[in-house]
């Protein structure tokens, strides 16, 4: 297989490249070159938003079996790249997001749910509309039978560049009492980035097309299991102090951002963690145990030398120590 990855050096793109190389495929990346390309790839340089767009792709004159596009901003970048590659690649995969679904997103929502408006001709607006515009751009260029739309949920694993699981690992590694937002049995859904990469290349290679929600079945792990695993792999002896959702919210603590991964029961939790992923499972999705994701992420965090890696363009996640201490005192 000849694989072209648009991106290829950050979290998801990096995993796609690694999976392709592990399969013995010929892998090409196209990006600005701000991060060195992994060894073993053919690296093309170019700025998708600059005048002329992906000129390096046009100049290369190559053809590919599969294209995987990880772009998350202006849909015009997907439009231009997909249009350029429509006659030079067999299949196009766009890494999208479950954020494209219109709110509210009820429990059990599947790929046939209503989506937000988007345009392939739009500049950058906001995340959900940009991702929807990217989907439409991919389909416009490759058609409904050659464009795979991978709608991811929460993505975890080594090299995570948002810092959600790394924050929990770093916090628990410090030890002592740790605020744990309940309930313990709160079901979670996520996808390990390596499982995402494996499923995506399998699906693209088989020529699958259309939208697929790519996240584990609901309850693949729970909030309690996830934090217990963090305690175990760090060996810190931290003491989890469980608090009811009402107590956490009353303290002015923000779900998802200040307490990464956590969403209290109710509509936001249903939207994030109770989707129907039977289509992806039927198409071969296999999710490794949470223990592997947590342990491998901790090993990477320790080796990277950065306690909580994160994208420089995003606000940092995590609970300020003062806020945590205040609620722990009240709970005690």
Count of separate structural domains: 2
User: Quick one: CATH superfamily of the largest domain?
Assistant: NAD(P)-binding Rossmann-like Domain
Write the CATH fold name of the largest domain: Rossmann fold
Count of alpha and pi helical runs: 12
Distance between the termini: 59 Å
Annotation, overall tally of beta strands: 15
Average pLDDT for all residues: 95
Strand content: 15-25%
User: Which word captures the global form?
Assistant: globular
Largest sheet: 7 strands, parallel
CATH C-level class of the largest domain: Alpha Beta
Tell me what the CATH architecture of the largest domain is: 3-Layer(aba) Sandwich
**Rg to the nearest angstrom?**
20 Å
- SSE run: EHEEHEHEHEEHEEEHEEHEHEEHHHH
Strand order of the largest sheet: 3-2-1-4-5-6-11
Q: Which structural class fits the helix and strand makeup?
A: alpha/beta
Structural write-up:
This protein is an alpha/beta fold. The protein folds into 2 domains: about 150 residues, Rossmann fold; about 120 residues, UDP-galactose 4-epimerase, domain 1. About 35% of the residues lie in helices and about 20% in strands. The protein contains 12 helices and 15 strands. The chain has a 7-stranded parallel beta sheet with strand order 3-2-1-4-5-6-11, sandwiched between helices. Helix 3 links the parallel strand 4 and strand 5. The longest helix is centred in the middle third of the chain and has 16 residues. The mean pLDDT is about 95.
